[in-house]
Amino acid sequence: MVRKSFLSYNKTIWGPLELVEKLYPEAEEIGASVRDLPGLKTPLGRARAWLRLALMQKKMADYLRCLIIQRDLLSEFYEYHALMMEEEGAVIVGLLVGLNVIDANLCVKGEDLDSQVGVIDFSMYLKNEEDIGNKERNVQIAAILDQKNYVEELNRQLNSTVSSLHSRVDSLEKSNTKLIEELAIAKNNIIKLQEENHQLRSENKLILMKTQQHLEVTKVDVETELQTYKHSRQGLDEMYNEARRQLRDESQLRQDVENELAVQVSMKHEIELAMKLLEKDIHEKQDTLIGLRQQLEEVKAINIEMYQKLQGSEDGLKEKNEIIARLEEKTSKITAAMKQLEQSDNDLLTQTRTIAMSLVKCASSDTQDQYKLVKDISF
User: Fold this and answer.
1) N or C, which end of the chain is more exposed by having fewer CB within 10 Å?
2) Listed residue (39, 40, 56, 46) closest to 15, CA to CA
3) pLDDT digit string (tens) for 332-371?
4) Cα–Cα–Cα angle for 214, 216, 218, rounded to 5 degrees
5) Where are the beta strands (DSSP E) in the chain?
6) Cβ contact 14:34 at 8 Å
7) DSSP-derived 3-state class of residue 172
8) What is the per-residue pLDDT across 170-207, written as a single tens digit (0 to 9) for each?
9) What's the whole-model pTM score?
10) Cα(350)–Cα(301) distance, rounded to whole angstroms?
């Protein structure tokens, strides 16, 4: 009869548990947590931590069911006669469903999961017929067990503190090495800075000597320039006083020219106003001439009408002749008056035009002369 085993003899339990992450995505969190745990060095320790986390999640049966369903993948890790490859594997997974009822709170950090679990001797916990009445011995055993549990707990805490101290020592050693390297770099930088400081001091001395020589030369130049400036300042003061006097005279002359220009401008405005008045008078006379011409035409029309009536009526010939004579006298007087008015208007127009032209020419010549004079003064 072939003996069935849970695993193959040359495989570890961590291999199929890693396969669960690919088949069941929710198991990726457990795998990542197990890999991040410090102190786990063997696959057996990782498998124990994985099983404890699965129990606390209450998903042990679900994870193993994924493995049982994918038996073709399990052939890489198990022999053909292994327990997980047989039908009993499904039965075991079904039995594991009962573990979901238990609220497990197992310790994972600080536990030595890589080493082999020792055999626990439960003989002292079993009751014999001889020890039924021995209460004192039971009390001693209970005290010893309490002490044992206290010592184990204290040992566990000490192991955790030692591991933390080891980690702190490692970190301190790393920081110490970094500080030593930084100190060496700082010493090298200090040496370089000292060399640069010495070089800068020597350059500073050279620059100081050159600047002193340059200052002496510039001092001599400044003294000579100061003497020349004092000599030239007297001549400049005389020139300034002369220019100031000329400026005062020219400004006075310019003020006089501006006053004359203002007078000429006012005269020009008066001439323009007189021209406007003359034009208005001429227009009025022209209107009167037009009225007289209209009256003349009316008289001519009356004359023609009377003449026609004269021919038609012989009886009133004398009276009409008299009327005609009087009308002719009136017409002659009106024509003479019109001619006289036209002659006077023409003479007045010519006179006003000549006066205006002469005034305009005078004003333009005066303004040009004044403009030239002002321009010369400004220059």
Assistant:
1) N
2) 46
3) 888 888 888 878 777 777 777 777 677 666 656 655 655 5
4) 70
5) none
6) no
7) helix
8) 888 888 888 888 888 988 889 989 888 888 888 888 89
9) 0.33
10) 35
